[in-house]
Design goal:
The structure is a single chain. By secondary structure, this protein is an alpha/beta fold. It has 2 domains: about 80 residues, no CATH class; about 250 residues, Rossmann fold, CATH 3.40.50. The protein is about 35% helix and about 15% strand. The chain is built from 13 helices and 11 strands. The strands form 2 sheets. Strands 7-6-5-4-3-8-9-11-10 form a 9-stranded mixed β-sheet, sandwiched between helices. A two-stranded antiparallel sheet has the order 1-2. The relative contact order is 0.10.
Length: about 350
């Protein structure tokens, strides 16, 4: 492909082979497609190709890269100029100062979501002062596992169930669990929020096995290497989730790099954006546990929200938690001082 002619640039991509001139060509390509900070993005892509940090790229400006590096750089610049997110191109995104593998099966983790991790860690610390066991957490819609793994790496006395209804997402989460060394704290879990069956999955199932799981209300022992619970949100001390909350009608208004590349199933919150909050609230507020006679303890529910829906979330909370003896709701700001998360502490007696 003659990229010079295709994009009508002045740089001869086949002759001007220095790192700097290639980056300038990349900048022109990205700028023509209205990519923000095109020079920086081009330089970062070059760093990925050369496996060098940005300062290493700068000191390599006059070097002529190998042909395979040039070809890879061109391919990645073309992908980025078409709007594909950088994180998907390089298969990597940092979240909570932790590296994660990402692909198109999962949403790209955003810095605003880090407030969920912060708040969950605070709740774990609060519970650990009173309980003489590991704190149990379930991360609903785990995707890449960013929230669950970030919590696991920053808390010593916790067991986290990383739950999703997509085996592709669970495959991605598994890679991140292994890479970040938290296999002893994070358990991959299949969970269909709209059909609330929870079961722990083995490696074969993560690899998209179609094995049927035996249905049982309260199995005492694992069934076929899995353990299934029916509607058992009360078994967890903390529920944390970044559920889909974009209104269906607003999906078409999202930026192209989101709308065309990120999984819409992980964004679509139904007609009013509240479909999954209704279900999570119902599951959390269900205090009848047919499998246990243990006294009810106070639990925590921590969810990311659309700050524009704060009033709707509070109304839903009043409706779904009306029969709970103790309940308390707090909204949490993100880095931009917007209401980005809601925390609900609820239960029947003090821990």
């Amino acid at each position: 492909m003659n990229l010079k002619n295709s994009y009508n640039f002045n740089i001869d991509i086949d002759k001007d082979l220095s790192v700097y001139k290639l980056i300038k060509w990349g900048e022109l390509s990205l700028k023509s497609k209205n990519i923000s900070n095109p020079f920086n993005e081009s330089a970062v892509i070059m760093g990925y190709v050369l496996k060098k940090p940005l300062d290493g790229v700068i000191t390599s400006y006059n070097i002529k890269p190998a042909k395979n590096h040039i070809n890879l750089f061109k391919r990645l610049i073309i992908k980025r100029s078409r709007g594909e997110p950088y994180a998907y191109i390089v298969k990597k995104k940092e979240f909570y100062s932790i590296p994660f593998f990402v692909d198109k099966s999962v949403l790209i983790p955003r810095p605003d979501t880090e407030c969920l991790v912060e708040e969950t860690l605070k709740e774990i610390e609060r519970l650990q002062k009173d309980l003489k066991r590991k704190i149990s957490v379930i991360d609903l819609g785990t995707g890449s596992g960013a929230i669950a793994i970030s919590i696991a790496k920053n808390s010593s006395n916790v067991i986290i169930y990383a739950a999703d209804n997509s085996f592709k997402s669970l495959e991605t989460a598994k890679k991140n669990i292994i890479f970040n060394g938290v296999e002893d704290k994070v358990i991959l879990t299949y969970f269909n929020m709209l059909k609330p069956d929870i079961y722990w999955i083995n490696e074969t199932q993560v690899q998209r096995s179609s094995t049927k799981v035996q249905q049982s209300a309260c199995p005492a022992e694992p069934v076929s290497n899995t353990k299934l619970f029916d509607n058992a949100m009360h078994d967890f001390d903390i529920i944390v989730s970044n559920p889909p909350y974009i209104k269906t009608g607003e999906l078409k208004t999202l930026d192209d790099d989101v709308r065309l590349y990120e999984p819409l199933r992980a964004l679509d919150g139904g007609q009013d954006g509240l479909k999954f909050y209704r279900k999570i609230f119902e599951l959390a507020a269900s205090t009848e546990n047919p499998c246990s006679s243990a006294p009810k303890k106070r639990k925590s529910l921590i969810l990311e929200i659309d700050y524009r829906e704060k009033s709707a979330i509070k109304h839903l909370y009043n409706e779904k938690f009306k029969d709970i003896i103790f309940k308390q709701i707090t909204f949490i700001n993100d880095l931009n001082k917007k209401d980005r998360a809601v925390k609900i502490v609820y239960g029947q007696n003090d821990n």
